[in-house]
Write a structure and sequence with these properties.
Subcellular location: Cell membrane
Number of helices: 16
Organism: Lacrimispora celerecrescens
Structural class: alpha+beta
Domain Histidine kinase: 491-603
Shape: elongated
Membrane topology: Multi-pass membrane protein
Keywords: ATP-binding, Cell membrane, Kinase, Membrane, Nucleotide-binding, Phosphoprotein, Transferase, Transmembrane, Transmembrane helix, Two-component regulatory system
Radius of gyration: 51 Å
CATH topology of the largest domain: Beta-Lactamase
Number of domains: 3
Length: 605
């Protein structure tokens, strides 16, 4: 099988590979679809559970804000006295004062509790106190009927009605009444009831805002026994209007079973549709909070997403297959030409690949990279050749011009004059320095340590100091960590010689030179030669820096006899270290001049 595949043409291999990739993609998508449906169901069930828990907490908060109202008579002793006395035993004035006090307190409680619209207290003695005026007799009568119908078992027991429509003043509300018992501490003897009328419409608004914030596709409802207390807006199936009484009687008990199972989620049929539901019971009210969504919506949503992705992938794969067949026909010729050219390069002849049509694909990029590599190899060979020529020229010029005839003549005259006058120690110093300089010049290596280059410089300055005693002072600021850094020869002495010859034209008591080395960046050093001489005019500095900056690597040093001044040292630095190295001139006319040489670190001499 493998042998047969190897014998196939390049295009057949691409086509077969594409078909296998297509089959593999279909299988992967089938697996991903099954996992996606399962994950979507799990995710939505967990999300519905969390949403139910959030809504249950919001409902507990809304109901809990009035939970301490049954302690009102224990907190305020005056209210406790009022509730224990009968109004028939009071004077009209006392009755008015107590009614006014009770109404003020109850009205304040409605202001404190945002959902409470009205608070009423009914005493066992038949007295009634309310936060508003003109409470109807029907309301009081219905309240006593409700109280008598409840089996009160504990002092903390409360009773919640389902929402019902009623007006308070001229405003209509959907009210939910919470009944509290009023009793003394230590004995279970009820002597009154406190009725808190909550605006269920404002609580429902909180549910609506939570539904909008959830961004969940499920619907939300509150169910109590066979009644729907609340249903979210735009529900997929409205439990109040879409379900018949028979369907409610069949479905609602199943909600209790789901909650009692402890799983908090399950499946049930609503209006003939199989739904995924999450059910949570609110312990305070006994209401069931239901999150539900038709199961087919989850499956369809997952399928739609997967089919969209699959359609795009199949389209891309088809286009890729067609494109692969077209491109395979265009690959052989340039690859063959590239292989032949690279084979010539392997034999030592680095030729560039030319004569092909320009391409912007991977093959064109490969050819371009090869040509760039070949060009760099050829440039490197040329650079090495030029650098070797420049170095030989430099060595020759150093032998001929660095210690120029003028300097040798003056140095020898100085030796002769001192020798004729008297025997002094300067004569051995001069001859020793001259000997070291000649030895350094004819030394075979072109690359030395910074320490050796500075020793060469000190020999030169030693002779100049004897020629011009007291004329200038020299300071060296070279950290020990940089002394073994490798440098090319003959870069310091020409710069210092320029300073002595040109900067110190005006005779002064003493001129100052400073040679320093510092770190320019992580990979570069900066060698600086500073003098406090006459300086250079700004226009000349700009002209010098522009010429130095525009000097390119691989520059062949001139044969015009100009020696190895700034331009030649700069060209040698760029040839050896690269374009980002070289000389920069800093000067202020009449004040100072500083020549900065930038070189690379970590090249051992």
């Amino acid at each position: 099988m493998i042998r047969r595949f190897r014998r196939l043409s390049f295009q057949s291999k691409i086509l077969l590979t594409y078909l296998l990739l297509l089959l593999f993609t279909v299988v992967i998508f089938a697996i991903c679809y099954i996992q996606g449906v399962s994950s979507a169901l799990t995710y939505n069930i967990e999300y519905m559970k969390q949403s139910n828990q959030q809504k249950n907490m919001n409902l507990d908060i809304a109901m809990g804000n009035n939970s301490s109202l049954n302690l009102l008579h224990l907190i305020d002793p005056k209210i406790n006295v009022i509730l224990h006395e009968k109004s028939s035993n009071m004077t009209p004035k006392d009755r008015y004062e107590r009614d006014y006090y009770m109404q003020t307190v109850l009205k304040m409680l409605t202001v404190i509790n945002p959902h409470v619209q009205r608070i009423t207290i009914l005493t066992s003695a038949g007295d009634t106190y309310c936060s508003i005026n003109n409470i109807s007799e029907d309301y009081i009568g219905n309240a006593w009927k409700t109280i008598d119908s409840v089996a009160w078992k504990t002092k903390s027991q409360k009773y919640y009605t389902i929402p019902y429509p009623q007006k308070i003043g001229n405003t209509g509300y959907s009210l939910l009444t919470v009944y509290h018992q009023l009793s003394d501490i230590g004995e279970y003897k009820t002597y009154g009831y406190l009725l808190a009328d909550l605006d269920f419409g404002s609580i429902a608004k909180d549910f609506n805002s939570t539904d909008a914030a959830d961004g969940l596709a499920s619907s939300f409802a509150i169910v109590y026994k066979d009644q729907v207390i609340y249903n979210s807006r735009n529900a997929h199936i409205n439990l109040e209007t879409d379900l018949s009484e028979k369907e409610k009687q069949e479905a609602f008990p199943h909600l209790e079973q789901i909650e009692a199972s402890g799983k908090e989620s399950g499946e049930l049929f609503l209006n003939g549709t199989l739904c995924i539901a999450s059910v949570l019971k609110n312990e305070s009210t006994g209401w069931y909070l239901v999150q539900y969504i038709p199961k087919h919506l989850l499956i369809n949503t997952s399928m739609e997403s997967m089919l969209n992705v699959m359609a795009w992938v199949m389209l891309i794969l088809t286009a890729a297959g067609i494109l692969s067949l077209i491109l395979s026909k265009q690959v052989s010729r340039p690859i063959k030409a590239l292989a032949e050219t690279m084979n010539q390069a392997r034999q030592g002849e680095v030729k560039l690949l030319t004569g092909l049509e320009p391409r912007e694909d991977e093959i064109g990029n490969l050819i371009e990279i090869y040509n760039e590599m070949g060009k760099r190899i050829n440039d490197s060979i040329t650079k090495l050749y030029i650098m070797q020529i420049n170095q030989k020229q430099t060595e020759l010029k150093m032998l001929q011009f660095q210690i120029n005839p003028h300097f040798l003549y003056n140095a020898l005259n100085t030796v002769t004059a001192i020798a004729r006058l008297e025997e002094i120690e300067e004569i051995p110093a001069i001859t020793e320095s001259l000997s070291d300089m000649f030895r350094y010049n004819i030394k075979g290596t072109d690359f030395v340590t910074l320490k050796d280059e500075v020793i060469q410089l000190k020999n030169y300055i030693r002779i100049q100091s004897i020629r011009f005693p007291g004329r200038f002072a020299v300071k060296y600021d070279i950290p020990e960590e940089y002394e073994n850094n490798g440098v090319i020869k003959f870069i310091l002495q020409p710069i210092v010689e320029n300073s002595i010859q040109h900067a110190f034209k005006n005779k002064r008591d003493q001129d100052y030179l400073k040679i320093s080395v510092s770190q320019d960046s992580e990979d570069y050093l900066l060698i600086s030669v500073y003098d406090d001489g006459c300086g250079i005019p700004k226009e000349k500095v700009d002209e010098l820096n522009d010429a130095l900056w525009n000097t390119k690597a691989n520059t062949l040093l001139g044969e015009d006899g100009t020696g190895i001044g700034l331009a030649n040292v700069n060209a040698r630095l760029k040839n050896f270290y690269g374009e980002d190295c070289g000389i920069v001139v800093e000067s202020r006319y009449g004040s100072f001049t500083c020549i900065h040489m930038r070189i690379k670190r970590n090249k051992e001499g």
